[in-house]
Structure formats: structure tokens, C-alpha cells
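Supplementary Data S3. Sequence and C-alpha cells for construct A.
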Amino acid sequence: MFTGASNLAEGVDKAFLFIFIIAFIFIIGISAFMIWTVIHYSRKKGREAKQFSGSMKMEVLWTVIPTILVMLMFWIGWKGFAPMRKVPADAMVVTAIGRMWEWEFVYSDSLRSKELVLPINKPVKLDLVAEDVNHSLFIPAFRVKEDVIPGYDNWLWFTPNYIGDYEILCTEYCGLLHSAMVSKTRIVEQEEFDRWYEELKVASFMPEHEGLKLLRSTGCLACHSLDGSKLVGPSFAGLYGSQREVVSGGSAKSVTADEAYITRSIYDPNGEIVEGYARNLMQSYSELLTEEQVGIITEYLRELVEGDGQKEADL
């Protein structure tokens, strides 16, 4: 009767179904009793009013029955919850990192992926780490959800039962793009997982630009995309050398996104606001980034544009 995408889904579904059935019976029963009472005891001509006193039988019934039902709810819920805190010894360990506003998954050998790829029928433990504010990792199909809190060691585990793609959500409000903090769990056969893991190893040998590391570590990529998509702030894609329409001092003007413009945008972000974006969303990074670091970021943004140009030339 009960099936789920993980080994833990059955226990959660049984508890939910039991509580739902009890609540449904009570709401129907109470509503029916109220209607009957209103009709049966309504004021009518020729009927003498009566005074009712307490009933020991009723007192016992509405004390004992709810107590039994609550204890049953607790027992069924406990049977579903207890396995969630018993991790198998052979579970694969993956670190799930939550940051505004994305998930990242770190496998052994420090291999990083934006999606959670797992082999079917193999238990996995997710160590939960928050790099900024409170988050909450929720995989609805697997019926698992745990808070991801800075400085707090927390985890969850499950065994995926079916091949497929499943949503990963954040269920703790964490800022403007909380609703966009989504990722994917991809469950595959062991052979496909092994191939994907080897490809991840090969990709990891490519050195990451220091400018990209700075953008990531300072939280810039939470508000500015690298692929042209619109977030809280304008995208970094095609930024360097482009013409930007900005509002400064109440008037609009066009500026070139050169090194000077990028430096001004980092140290005085509200001095020139790109048209279509709100003011006062970004604070100055003058105390977080040195001039040398800003230069490294500028160099990365320049190479980003040149790299896209080279790709077009190759095509």
C-alpha cells in the first residue's frame, strides 16, 4: 500500500495518513453532532425547557478516547521518526552546503557538485552546513527535512528506492531569493554514478580562477549570476567593457564597465545604480575586499567576456 522514493517515506506517510483519518472523523463527527444538537434542542412552542447536569460517563469517554488516540499518534509517529536518526554504518557521506541562495554538495576528495547525484539503493548521509544564515534542506519525495544552521552540526540520511530526478528545496526563509533556492537529486544506477563521479574528478583538475573564488566566498554570486539570468543584481555575464545605463544623482547616464566602474560598484554600490534595479540592496565592500582583490575580480570578469568571445569565434 505504501510506497515512497526512499526507505523513510513509508513511516512518514503512515503517520500522516493516521492523523489525517482521525482528524477527518472528528471534524465530520463533531459537525454532525453540532447540527443534530441545534435541530433537536432548538426552541419550540409547547416544549418545556430542561436543565442538564454533568455525566460521569461522558467525562470518562472524552478523556480516555482522546488520550488513547494521542498515544497512538505518538507511537506511529515515533516508529516513523526513530529510523531517521539511525544511520547505517556503510552509508555514503556527502556534505550539503547551504548559502544564499544555492545548494552545493561536496563528495569525498572535496569534489563539488550543484546537484546531488546518488546511486540507487545505497544509504547516504548528508552532513548539513550553512555558510551564512539559517536554511532548511527538504527533499519532499524522500520525506526528509532538517534545519541547516550556522555553527550547528546536523545531518539526515535516507536510501533512495527509485531512479529519477527529485526536487531539493529550502524551507527556512533566508532572504530575497529564498523561493529560488532549489536544486535536484538525481538517482541513477551504480554504473552511471561511477561514470559521473570519474567525470567529476577529471573536471576538478581544472584550476578555479582566484577571482571566481573571491566572488563565491564574499557572497557576490548570491545576487549576481554568471550566465545572464536576472537575480537581485545585474548579471556578471558580458559585464566587462559593456555599456551600462545607470542612474546617478537622480539623472540617467551611460558608463563603460571598465576597471574604474567595477571598483566604484564594489566600494560605492549605491552611487551608480543600473536601470531596473533597486537602490540600497548592496552595502559597500570596502572593508571586505582590498584593491588587489578587486583587481583580481576585474581580471576574472574580463576573462569571462574574452572566453565567451573565443567560444563564439570557435563556432
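Construct B, processed identically:
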Amino acid sequence: MTSRPMTSATACLIALALMGISAQAQVLRPSNTLTTPLPLVFNSSATVRQADFIVAIVNAEPITNTQVQMEVQRTLQILAGQGRPAPNARELAAEVLDRLITERVQLNQASETGLKVEESSVEQAVQNVMRQNKVDLPELKRRLAKDGVEYAQFRNQLREQITLTRLRERDVEPRVKISDGEVDQYIQEQQDISANPANVQMNLAHILIAVPETASLPEQASLQAKAQQAMTRARAGEDFAALAREFSSAADRANGGQLGLRTADRYPSLFLDATQKLKVGELSGLIRSGAGWHIVKVIEKRSANLPPTVVAQNRSRHILLSLSPQLSEAAAVEKLNDFKKRIQTGQSDFATLARENSQDGSAAQGGDLGWANPGQFVPEFEAVLQSLAPGEVSAPLTSRFGVHLIQLMERRNAPVGEREQREMVRSMLREKKLDETYISWARDLRARAYIELREAPQ
């Protein structure tokens, strides 16, 4: 990403930098923070320079009109960057004030309970901001000064966002438990409603033996025999995708005949009737339509509200170099580019270089990260991984953890076992309950705080 002014686009990068703070112990895995810190957009003081006054007091601490207006301007910039219309000014100011009050109450709670953010964490957040924005410290300070923001103020806002995240992780997440009974109940409810085709998703593959309208009776008999031959071989266990490429007249034969995951009501009723009682992996009988003879296989079938039964997995390995005062990003990139050249020319082996150089827990396994489901890695890592062909080595990638050299080893479509599906459901239910628990927790904190509303923000 190229360097640019610190506007709403850069604000998103700063938010990403903050998101990685609590994930240090989960190398490459996204953090499960309850909320994402608001992007830090810094505005020119000229845009908010007006008569200042106190609009609210929270536990003896004032919130001023200027603070509210700065947050309003920041929100408007973010909405504009997303192409969304600006809301009513009065309503937006009221919402911003409400959020500032909530944050102030939570920061007071953190202070009263002794939650502190070490200086090293703030410094790490600053480094993340500079790395994401491709700037050094003097340039960052210059941009802040241009927007009327002191560097100390910038660091304090980072500290507050880290504090809020850690407070919620400490006080909210431990309250959320999902029992086996809740998982069972959810799965049962979804299976009960799956009788409605609009609530069922299926991926079917088919082989079409086309029968022209002008075909004579002998030609029709010959084509039916061809369809029966394909069916016999499919039932004997031959690869269905290979049979589709050999026999099928349909345009999707190059894709193994797969029609793609879609709700059941988007399939022809002929296919639905033939597969309604089939399990994943089972075949229909020969189906006659106006186009010819069909053989249909169920690749995947699930409730639209349940986890998938088949996932595309990647097996990859990487070399991670962590950035430090002794190792700059440029030096790390140069070193990994040298590793890549040595691997491609056969001078070195990826696994050996990983064991000798990688600063990740996978180093002992030659950087092998094992089979991974979609979404298991942080987005920037996963995006590069998905772009690689098996055996290909990436260019150096900078993430919140450092600089990586990635090699995709294998890809496969893997069935998701019952245990894994249950854990996916548990995770989904936990995220929903986390949101509900956070709302209740935040409401209780506010109820115990002293909040005095004075003049409305202007």
C-alpha cells in the first residue's frame, strides 16, 4: 500500500494495527476481541474549532463539545470513505456523546481495578501504525502535527483503545460459556427447519448424457446404454469428476459436473425429488429430462444456518522474521527474498531454512502449519495463501506479526466431521452471546456511574 495522508483510509489501517495487539500468543490467528477499536482519524483542528463547553460529566470527568465534534468529524470521514450517506447531524452528535460516555465509564472501571497498559504495548501499536502506513516516526509526527494532534495525544488514544479491549477481554469473555445442550438444541432447531428448501444448501454434481430431440429409437437406446455405463462405473467407486469430464455433455463437465453450493429451491424440481432422501456422497438413479439422461451426486447438503460439511483446506509452511530495532522491515524483506531465490534454485530447502531462521512456533516442524480451514489465519496471510498454486513460494509478506515467506504445499476438499461442526456451532453461539453479554455488562457499568448531562453538543 502506498503512502497517503492520514485520512479515513489510513484510519482503517490504524484500527487493524490495534486489532493485532491481543493476538501475540496466537501467531497468525486473528484475535477474538469482543469489539474492534474505532479507527483513529485525526482531523484538522480548524474543522472543530468553536466555542467549547462541557456537555457531560462522567464520574467527575468532563466531556467537552470539542471532543464530541472531533468524534463526529471522524465518524463522518469513515462513512464517506465507505460511500455511506451522512446521518442527521443532531442524531449523530447524540450517538457519539453516548459512546464517549460509555468509553469513559469503562476506562474508569479499568483504572479502579488496576488494569494497566505497559508502555511496550503502546510502542508496539505505534510501530504497527507506522508499518501499515509505510511511514517512519518523523513522518508520522509530521502528519499528526498537520492535523493539529500532538504525538503524546496520539499515544494516549492508542493506550485507551488497548485498555478498552483488554478490559472487555478480562471482564466479559470469561462470563460466556456455551453448554453441550445449547449446541444440541441449535443443531436440532436447524435440522427441523431444513425441510423448507429455502433453508437447505446443496452442492450437486451431475453427468448429462444429452439426447437430441431428433434422435431415432436406436440412437436413444444407445445413449441410454451410455448413461447406464457411466452410472455403473460411478456406483463402482470411480471418481465422479473424472466420469463427468469423460461422459457429460453439460458445460460444467470441466468442473467435475459440480453445480455449486446454492439453496435447494434454486435447483430443478427433478433434481430435488431425486436427491431429497440422499446423504452426502450418494448417487441418484438415472433421471430422464427433456435434455437427456442425468446422474446426480450429492457433494454437500446442509442447513443454511449450519456450518459446512465440506471445506477447502490448505496445507502451508512459512518462515517468520519478527521486526525489531535490530531488524527493520526492509532488511527482513531482503533476507526473505534471498531465501526465496535459494529455494527456487535448489541451493536450500524451505524446511531447513525455516528450522534455522523462523521465529515462530512452527520452526521445529520446518514451518509446517498443517491443514488449515478458511479463516484460520489473519486476512493478509490468507489472501496471499489463496493466490498461490501448490508448491509456489510467495513474495515476502508483512503482517502484524512480522514478515513472512509462505509456501503452499497442498490443497484439498475435506469433509468436516461431527465434532468439528459442533465446535463451529459453539463458536458461532459464543460470538452471539458475547455481544449480548457485553451490552448487559456495559449497561450495568453505566448504571453504577455518576453521569450528568449538561448542554447538548453543537
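The two ends are 37 Å apart (CA to CA). Residues 1-27, 30-49 have pLDDT under 50 and may be disordered.
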